[in-house]
# Entry
Amino acid sequence: MRHLFSEPSRDAELGAALRSAEAVPSDDAEALHQRITAAAAAGLSALRRPDSRTEWWEWLSAWTKVAVPAAATLALGAALLIPSVQPGDTAAVAADADTTVMAALFSDPAERGALAAGIIAPADVDWLLTQVMQQ
Amino acid sequence: MTAIGAVPVEARSGGATPAEQELLGRVQRGDADAFNLLVRRHLPRARVVAMRLMGDPDDADDLVQEAFLRVLDRIGSFDPSRPFEPWFTRVLLNLGLDLKRKQAVRRPQLRDVDAEPGRERPDQDVERAELGRSLRNALNRLPARQRAIVTLFELDGLSTGEVATMLNVSQVTVRWHLHQARRTLREALKAWQP
# Structure
C-alpha cells in the first residue's frame, strides 16, 4: 500500500522497453494537418465574427427569452383581473332590475298599473296622443 | 534525451510564453494562420499520445482531429496565460478514453497485435521484435486509463500529480493504476528475460 502514498520512481527498464516497442503513427501527418484545418474553417469563421454584429435571428432569440414570459404574465394577469370586475357590475344591474319587477308584482293593482305604465307603454294607442295633448 | 512526443518541461510548468500567449490570442480571434501554426506545433506529440491510447493509426488520427476541433470550440473560454499543452493533452486523453469505452462496448474482444503463430526460437533481432510485440499486446490489453497513465508517467516523464490533473482523478488513483499497469507489463517482459 505504500506505493499509493508516495511518488513512485521511474522504472528505467520498463520505460526503455516501452519506448522501443512504441508503435509509430502513420506517415501522412501533412494530410491530417490539412484535414484538421479544413474541418476547423467554420469554427474559425465563427470566431472572426465581431461580437457587435448580431444577426436578426440571434436578436429575436435573445428577446424571445424575455418577451414570451412577459406576454404570458400579462395574459395571466388580464385573465384574472377582467372577470373579477364584470360579474360585480352585472349583478348590480340584475339586482336593480329584480327590485323593479318585484315592486311591480307585489304592489296594489292601481299602483301596479301606474308602475307598469311608467315602465312599459300601455297597449292603448291613444296614450301617446293624450300625453302629447297634456304637454 | 527527450522521447518522441514527450511534454516539454516549459510547457508543463509555469505559464505560457509570451509568444504562445500571442498565438493563442490570435486563435481566439479566429486567425486561421495562427491555428495552422498551433496545429503544426502540437500535432507530432498529439499523434504519439493518441497512438499510444488507441493502438490504431486511423483511430489515433481521428482522435487528434476531434481533439483539435474540440479545443477550437472551447478556445474562447481558455486563459491564454496558461500553458496550452496540458489543457490540450487533457482534452485529447478524455476524448480518447470516451472513444475507447465506446469501442469496448462495440467490440469487447481485443485482437492480438501482429499475431504470428508457430514461431520457433528466434535469433536476437527477431527476439527483440517478439519482445516488442509481446509488450505492445500487453499494453493494448490494459484498460485505456491504465495505458494512458503508464505511458504518461514512464515515457513522458510526468509526475503522478500532473497525470492526475490531466485525467481529473486523484493522485492515489493514478498511483494505483500505475502499479497495476506496471505489474502487467512486467509479466510480459519477464517471459523474455534470460
Observations:
- Chain A touches chain B through 36 residues (CB under 8 Å).
